UniProtKB/TrEMBL annotation:
Biological process terms in GO annotation: regulation of synaptic transmission, cholinergic; sleep
Record keyword Repressor present: no
Compartments reported by the entry: Membrane
Superkingdom as given in the UniProt entry: Eukaryota
Name the record gives this protein: Uncharacterized protein
Keywords: Glycoprotein, GPI-anchor, Lipoprotein, Membrane, Signal, Transmembrane, Transmembrane helix
Coiled-coil residues: none
Signal peptide: 1-18
Cellular component GO terms, alphabetical: side of membrane
Length: 157
């Protein structure tokens, strides 16, 4: 019986290793500043990649500000301006000099060169779940894990 409980606990723990991030855009109520997780209606989703980080992407054009919150792995397939350093903190977008070099496009609204916004800032975090809110205090994953281990040991003994 004890061996089965340990196997069950380990299997549940291995599935929880992905970080949870808020996933919303500026069109979602509560996603802009100040952030309101009640406005977006849920507590986020686990990221698909085990080595993922949470991202808060801020794009500014004059007084307009567009904020997108998501996992980094969801940006990688279509964004080429992700900074090389994705450690904790905020950085300006990387310049992709080869972007749209061979495109002959006369429709300026498509923004194939990604130069519409005056400023693009990438903010990365991975030390706590749902950290791309930057205004919500959450419990540390380590504290929750240690608490579960202590309760499991007391049950088994």
């Amino acid at each position: 019986m004890k061996k089965q409980l340990i196997i069950l606990f380990v299997s549940l723990f291995s599935e929880c290793l992905a970080i949870w991030c808020y996933q919303c855009t500026a069109a979602t109520p509560g996603c802009n500043e100040p952030f309101n997780w009640r406005g977006i209606g849920y507590l986020g989703n686990p990221c698909p990649d085990r080595e993922d980080v949470c991202v808060k992407l801020i794009e500014r054009k004059g007084a307009q500000e567009v904020i997108t919150r998501d996992c980094l792995s969801n940006f990688k397939p279509f964004r080429t301006d992700i900074p090389a350093d994705t450690y904790e903190g905020c950085r300006s977008a990387a310049k992709d000099v080869n972007l749209a070099n061979y495109v002959n496009n006369t429709i300026k609204e498509l923004d194939v060169k990604r130069d519409w916004y005056d400023e693009t800032i990438w903010c990365f975090c991975f030390l706590d779940h749902r950290c791309n809110a930057a205004s919500v205090v959450t419990n540390s994953f380590v504290v929750v894990t240690l608490s579960c281990i202590v309760v499991l040991i007391k049950i088994l003994l």
